[in-house]
Amino acid sequence: MSIRAASAPNIALIKYWGNRNEELRLSAADSLSMTLDQPTVEVIADHAETFAARGFEPGGAERKLAEKEADRLRKHFLLVKRYLDAIGAAEAFPAGVSLEIRSKVPRGVGLASSAAVFSAIAEAYAGFAGELSRRDVSVLARLGSGSASRSVFGGFSAMIAGEGDAIGASYAEQIAPPAHWNLRDVVIAPSATEKATGSTEGHALARTSPLFEKRLRGIPSRQRDCIDAILKKDFEKLQKVAEEDCLDMHAVMASSAPPLCYLSEETHRIIREIEELRTRERLPVLYTMDAGPTVHLICEERALPAVRVYARAQKNCAIFEAGVGSGSRRA
Length: 331
Ligand code: PMV
Fold this sequence. Notes:
Layout: E1 2-7, E2 10-14, E3 19-21, E4 26-27, E5 31-35, E6 41-48, E7 52-56, E8 62-63, H1 67-86, E9 96-103, H2 114-129, H3 134-142, H4 148-151, E10 156-160, E11 171-176, E12 184-189, H5 199-205, H6 212-232, H7 235-254, H8 265-281, E13 285-288, E14 295-299, H9 304-312, E15 318-322, E16 329-330
(3R)-3-hydroxy-3-methyl-5-(phosphonooxy)pentanoic acid binds near residues 16, 145, 146, 200 and 290.
């Protein structure tokens, strides 16, 4: 039996950075994101004797997985079994699987594909396990990449950190469906170079920053403000809280030991210019950056023409655009 599933990345408005349990990817704090409608990743999973995974490029050519990627996928498979065991749903789950991961995420746009990959895999594994709740699927996704738990839901979703060390203690839930608010994400990627430290290693460094504890204390009220802004479609409030949280996460990153400086000169220039542009033209647009120099410009539809013109005028940058997506699904 072959199971197909597809998913897409999400962009965090309240950032997930730091775990309370690294192995199980139990988050140190809540986070919140908007699920994108593209680029998609498709996964085909089949029963097999052992675990094996193959990756394919956007053009369809096979891409040899790095040792580290293959290890992460294998580890995820074992954690999924452990979780299904814990909830009494492991019976129909196969001893091994063969996975095909077909990514449409263009190289060099600075969009991390792990959220799309692990939410699509979670959806396919859930197909083997039988009827699982959406929360269970979000836990399966989280075991591969914390942010992937949020891509299980369409529209706007939150990761609830929860408490304790139970494997299912952190999970995601939907805040508002895709049709709630037609925001757009115009992505400007100034650099095509691979990042030096991935987020898995980065999370483990968060506690070395003297700013981390303060960040953790501030997140509950930011998360509440962000949910409120989304429910009321209050863009100005969303802009303030999302930008504050993004800069706070980057301050934690930059003050960890060793420091992680993901933002470049280009990122800072784009931020300055966007601040000027939105003041001058009164545009509902906000900026946010994940673990890289890529700037996501999230805007309301009426700001889109001006934001597009700005993005297209950037030299040596890859540009990408997405809307609000519907989350991972069985294909
Ligand atoms: O899901 P991970 O382990 O790749 O972590 C994602 C971390 C950020 O992208 C920086 C923030 C987020 O909430 O997506």
